[in-house]
């Protein structure tokens, strides 16, 4: 390669590296004016990563002229492939940083929603997928895929100004970037435009703040659930619905319902629709709160006290623990775990039952010292610390899941009579109807039902082990010594492989 060509290429590379560092300087300047918050900290982290990459590229380029004199003139520029890889990586990080700072500017709210926005950005902009995310069910598009839709300004238009490049980039890509905003609600022009057909033959279910209808996607033929909210003109009501959407769009686990889309119709003001998959008309409460005859008719696989039924219930318990672990991994607290908020779906093979956590209307992100409402969850299942209006953590969900486990084991062991015995333990004789306040009576009834109604010793042993190592630890009155979700999963793994 001619010396003049080498130096020309070298100058181009130096200029590119300088532009990356200029980008860092300008982005850091913007972020420096932001108050400290989860989004601000995330933006600073992304900018620092870009700066590190830019410095690494610059130092690599600075070494070229000295090493170039040691090679033959006919040899191409030193390590061209490596430099090309570094430049591509820096380009990707630069776009990521510009998008991240723009996202932060749009979504700084200074409240709990900003914590949700930070999780959203970490997942969908930065690609930090939760370890157990069900990637096949994703309904949102990751930045890596969106980047294919991005248009880039002509390089000659921004050689003298980072601001020009950044502004031109954002202007060219408003439509693509709008799809990367949290709590996105699509607006359809008329009521005929949404691709869903309501199944009027199916009776709607009640949910938090709305009714849930069965719909069929006219495009795919899939059955979904749509939560219909009425009278959403008030700002507080609208923000509550958007908050639930913000939680749902982060749910990408096989044991949690998933968001398909949220939409409004221009010709129907005051209404909002949240489409969720799958449609499942059966809850855990339907399994528990039924006479033996009605239960058998609805759940033909279920026979109280049999080993096969207990094994199935253990699988359900594991699935619920997995789903809750996913939420807690994102620092999301469900706040209202109860049998009525757990769906039971037949798996694709038609044999196994898949438990699904649903109804995220009360869910929130958790951090130490954050304010919380203690009374908007179902009182029957409130943890002791919630009842006492003390600081509640993710451990409050563990208490509620422990209550669900208790009902599941009781139903599987003794059927309808056992369910009535457990219910009477905290609702009869002028008792409070709150499990945490009747803990001693509740656990006594639980032990009597579960420990002695199995058909054989092996079943009794498994149930006793479950009680001692899992349920007892989940229903610990002291949240500091109560099991966390990781411990619950570890203890359940000790059960026989089912």
TrEMBL record:
<keyword id="KW-0547">Nucleotide-binding</keyword>
<dbReference type="InterPro" id="IPR008271">
    <property type="entry name" value="Ser/Thr_kinase_AS"/>
</dbReference>
<keyword id="KW-0418">Kinase</keyword>
<dbReference type="Pfam" id="PF00069">
    <property type="entry name" value="Pkinase"/>
</dbReference>
<dbReference type="InterPro" id="IPR000719">
    <property type="entry name" value="Prot_kinase_dom"/>
</dbReference>
<keyword id="KW-0067">ATP-binding</keyword>
<protein>
    <recommendedName>
        <fullName>non-specific serine/threonine protein kinase</fullName>
        <ecNumber>2.7.11.1</ecNumber>
    </recommendedName>
</protein>
<dbReference type="GO" id="GO:0005524">
    <property type="term" value="F:ATP binding"/>
</dbReference>
<dbReference type="GO" id="GO:0004674">
    <property type="term" value="F:protein serine/threonine kinase activity"/>
</dbReference>
<feature type="domain" description="Protein kinase">
    <location>
        <begin position="198"/>
        <end position="495"/>
    </location>
</feature>
<keyword id="KW-0808">Transferase</keyword>
<keyword id="KW-0723">Serine/threonine-protein kinase</keyword>
<dbReference type="GO" id="GO:0005634">
    <property type="term" value="C:nucleus"/>
</dbReference>
<dbReference type="InterPro" id="IPR011009">
    <property type="entry name" value="Kinase-like_dom_sf"/>
</dbReference>
<dbReference type="InterPro" id="IPR050660">
    <property type="entry name" value="NEK_Ser/Thr_kinase"/>
</dbReference>
